[in-house]
Specification:
Bound molecules: NADP nicotinamide-adenine-dinucleotide phosphate
Helix content: 40-55%
Number of strands: 7
CATH architecture: 3-Layer(aba) Sandwich
Strand content: 15-25%
Largest sheet: 7 strands, parallel
């Protein structure tokens, strides 16, 4: 079969990093950005999932490189940044997507190490990636950081208080850093989806056929990433049309 040659797209020449890009919402985001022409780097802890998504993108004529990287480990992120710098010399789009959650546990029953795992993955890692990649974007002359938050960062979520707190904090961090970086031509956007059908949660008692799909979130990310330079979509809330 003849090799597929990708047509130039709105993100051709741009490099994007999607954390947690091996599966779930991150994989859908990576596929969409690659389809728009971006050179995509995905990272996560599970090599098999990363390779599966990366092979899928390459098979469709896109560019994707997968790196195993635990985003709670700053040295691993710095090694990843070195690899990106050597290969692409730039990073234009950073999608902080990776997260974990514990549902169905009241806060008083949560173990301290579980609190640390959630906060380190969902919040501290975003500090780490921004600390590492913002200087590269500043050197590039600009960039876009898209943080995948949640409606759990807008509402109370009983029995998932730590997850909710991590997302409320991620929103506050995003709004504040957005103001810090506007002058450097770096837009920081936050996307807050409602229930999405992925492995993150069993979504017990909810009708999966009414839930959002990973592709719905990927669509919003693509829209944000392809905005004209003068336009800054700072926040998007995504709800399923019918309550699941
Ligand atoms: N699903 C929903 O209902 C929903 C709703 C609103 C917002 N969100 C948000 O959407 C984002 C994606 O969630 P999802 O539903 O796609 O979840 P998911 O299917 O569980 O995927 C989570 C991703 O994060 C990666 N990850 C977790 N810990 C990591 C670490 N320490 N280092 C690197 N990668 C790590 C996982 O890869 P490995 O396990 O291989 O590391 C996986 O690729 C999250 O920010 C989540 O909070 C989800």
């Amino acid at each position: 079969m003849a090799e597929q040659v990708p047509l130039p797209g709105p993100l051709t020449g741009r490099t994007a990093l999607v954390t947690g890009g091996g599966r779930g919402i991150g994989a859908a985001i990576a596929k969409n950005l690659a389809g728009l022409g971006a050179s995509v780097v995905i990272c996560g802890r599970t090599r098999a999932a990363l390779e599966h998504t990366s092979n899928d993108i390459v098979r469709r004529g896109g560019e994707c490189i997968a790196y195993q990287c635990d985003i709670t480990d700053l040295p691993s992120i710095e090694i990843l940044a070195d690899k990106i710098r050597r290969k692409f010399r730039r990073l234009d789009i950073l999608v902080n997507n990776a997260a974990i959650a514990i549902f169905r546990t009241p806060l008083h029953a949560l173990k301290p190490f579980e609190w640390d795992d959630i906060m380190n993955t969902n919040l501290r890692s975003v500090f780490y990636t921004m600390r590492t990649f913002v200087p590269i974007m500043v050197t590039n002359g600009g960039g876009h950081i898209i943080n995948i938050s949640s409606l759990a960062g807008k509402n109370p979520v009983p029995n998932a208080a730590c997850y909710a707190a991590s997302k409320w904090a991620l929103n506050g961090l995003s709004y504040s850093v957005a103001e810090e970086l506007r002058g450097s031509n770096i837009r920081v956007s936050v996307i807050c989806p409602g229930s999405v059908d992925t492995d993150l949660s069993a979504h017990e008692g909810k009708d999966k056929s009414r839930m959002l799909t990973a592709q719905d979130i990927a669509h919003a990310v693509a829209m944000v990433a392809t905005q004209a330079p003068q336009s800054f979509v700072s926040e998007i809330l995504i709800r399923p049309t019918q309550k699941p």
